[in-house]
Amino acid sequence: MSDVVTQAVAAMNEKLNGGGIDGTAQFNIEGEGSMIVDADGAREGQADADVTFNADADTFREIFDGSLNPTSAFMSGRLSIDGDMGMAMKLASTLA
User: Fold this and answer.
1) pTM above 0.90, yes or no
2) For residue range 6-38, what is the model confidence (pLDDT) as tens digits?
3) Residue 19 burial (CB < 10 Å; 0-12/13-18/19+)?
4) b/e for 26-36, b at 16 or more Cβ within 10 A?
5) Going by C-beta distance under 8 Å and a sequence separation of 6 or more, which residues neighbour residue 72?
6) Beta-carbon neighbour count of residue 72 at 10 Å?
7) Which of 7, 10, 50, 62 keeps 20 to 30 A from 32, CA to CA?
8) Which residues are CB-contacts of 57 (< 8 A; sequence separation ≥ 6)?
């Protein structure tokens, strides 16, 4: 697992405050790997997901540290989203 994915997993688990989400989301970090978030929290890996987020490592890092709003990242084209937009919006509020 890359250091970037390891950091993303830790940041997401901190944002989730020990919980998880209803459904499954996958975060694809260009050139680094993928992270899955589900009822058990965040972990490295890939799975069939209800929603998939795609961005480069810098974009995800800025989203997780709070310096970039996920909605702004999406609107500016830095973040692409495939799948359940309702779940994407719920996760965006968790990340913001």
Assistant:
1) yes
2) 999 999 999 898 888 999 999 999 999 999 999
3) exposed
4) bbbbeebbbbb
5) none
6) 14
7) 50
8) 4, 29, 30, 31, 32
